[in-house]
Design a protein that fits this description.
Blueprint: H1 2-27, H2 34-38, H3 48-67, H4 78-81, H5 97-115, H6 120-150, E1 181-184, E2 187-191, E3 206-210, E4 213-216, H7 222-230, H8 242-251, H9 259-262, H10 275-284, H11 292-300, E5 301-302, E6 307-308, E7 363-369, H12 382-385, E8 394-397, E9 414-416, E10 425-426
Parallel strand pairs: 7-10
Antiparallel strand pairs: 1-4, 2-3, 5-6, 7-8, 8-9
Length: 431
Amino acid sequence: MISKLRKSNLQQAISLAFYQCRRNTVALFEDMDEATFRHQVHPDFSPVGWHLGHIAYTESLWLLERSAGNACLFPQYRKFFAADGLPKSQRVQLPNLEEIYYYLDTVRKKVLDYLEVADLNQEERLWRFLLQHESQHCETIAFLLELAKRNGQGDKERGGQGDKETILSPPLPLSPSPPPLIKIPAGEFEMGSNAIDALDNERPAHKVYLDTYSIERYSVTCGQYRAFMEAGGYENPGFWSKAGWEWLQIEQVEEPLYWHNVLSADNHPVCGVSWYEAEAYCRFVGKRLPTEAEWEKAVSWDADMNRHRIYPWGDEEPTPQHCNCVDVASPQKNRLTINTTSVDAYPDGQSAYGLYDALGNVWEWTASWFDGYDGFEMYPYVGYSQVYFDQQHRVLKGGSWATNPFALRSSFRNWYHPGVRQIFAGFRCAL
């Protein structure tokens, strides 16, 4: 009886989470035109419509075919929506939005039917993986829509008012200057996670010893980053590593990618910077980026209790009082501007050491290369994490304002090439 009751409660919890996640996914596509739906806004990313179809394809592949043993419901989509099926440039030949909605709905109905009989003792991890898979693609969709607006795709929604002056508001108060540093004492902490929803690259949990270091209480703000820009930060090779300066000469950028959205919000985190830009700013102020382990200890470790916290504030799931992330209880339409908040807006979300804003708002670059922990075991397939253990991807931590809470926790790891600026990324400094 106890086992059946647990299974029933777990089924309900998974069903609710899948419903909430899908509701937020679909909300991103409300009032979307066909041109935006199928436009490849950046050569490194697929059109937003492809991501929607890929969510259905992946859910069908793993739950209906490989777990339930059913035949493929839509074999005509197998190659098109597979991650390794077609080059990104060929993914613009999409079915229309109504057809993909039908694909999503049909697959989801069969998936929920299967949930009633699924052996969750064996499959719970897979269900939670797929929930996070959809969440991650939601965030990709969000930043691609932001890029589309930057490239003029969203002028109709904005009424043709795309100039910077039309979105400025009075500057907000600056954070305390210089930014306060928090001293983290030397010692061991537990890094990673063995929880049922932990992805393969978060496992296994393990002990790490760190010497004493300091880390900033807040993410670097737009006001602070403006000082770097005004001091000639983008013109002075002395602030840049050799690889960073070479990147800058190719990209020829002069400001963060999303600077026009947050130009007046001096107390908001800088957003849309590459790892190289973050590194250059740190050199400008005589600091450095934290390693992934330093970031995670400052965010997750409770020294008084000698334990790891799932979230900076504890083990209570994220709410709108804790951090700036997607609120699954209130689905949101495609937002027209970057929706960051002040770096000191969430005192209830502080870590045990006193860090603010470590989850949500913007991803934070770290100094570490993405790699597997000792004892790493791939799940559910090699291509999810292991192929990126190539010493070419830097780790980001913490999530952003566009991250679903299903993919938001202190141990969660994101990774990108150091030259990528399209994501909602910022950073904080260490010393």
